[in-house]
Amino acid sequence: MHTPPWNSGPPYGPPPFPGPAPGSRPDPVTARFGARVVARIIDYLALSAFAFAFFMLVSLAFSAANPAGFEAELSEEYYNVWAFLWFFGWGLLIFFYDWLFHIAWGRTLGQLVMSLKVVRAADGGRLSQGQAVGRAAIFGLPHSVPCIGHVWVLVDCAFAGPDTRLGQSLHDRAARTVVISTRRAPAHPPPYV
What we know:
Elements: E1 29-30, H1 33-65, H2 76-88, H3 90-105, H4 109-113, E2 116-120, H5 129-140, H6 148-158, H7 170-175, E3 177-181
Antiparallel strand pairs: 1-3, 2-3
Helix pairs in contact: 3-5
């Protein structure tokens, strides 16, 4: 004689509330376009301050090494090199800045201030070396071409605005990354008034 099981449903009943299972991580929230723009502006300001400080230190060192002393003028070629670096070296500076910050911490200084982080689109993990280099190259290196490079960057970043699902720019899509917000949502929503 065969007795049917006394409970044919799930072993412990339905979950007490809808949503992710206890102990699991909720789906990350993709970063808003405005937060990404503000983070990039902060990055540009930080890079400008770094480049200016570096220029001042090098100029001070060259002036100190000049046999004529601090009052002597530096050569025209010296300033031409700095002008060349300002116009054509900016992309290389942005490339190294983005690459090194993303591989080390997953975010730049601007993204840290805005509570953003860059993760793999497939599983939300840390970027691989190839993803960090590719993302930084596609975003940063075009800055080295005056005018055309800046137009490329505007086109690249404009793709993040209409993409409401993941908010990916072209450099995000090419590197298979996504920028997420690391701000925590409140544990309980505010009560309705």
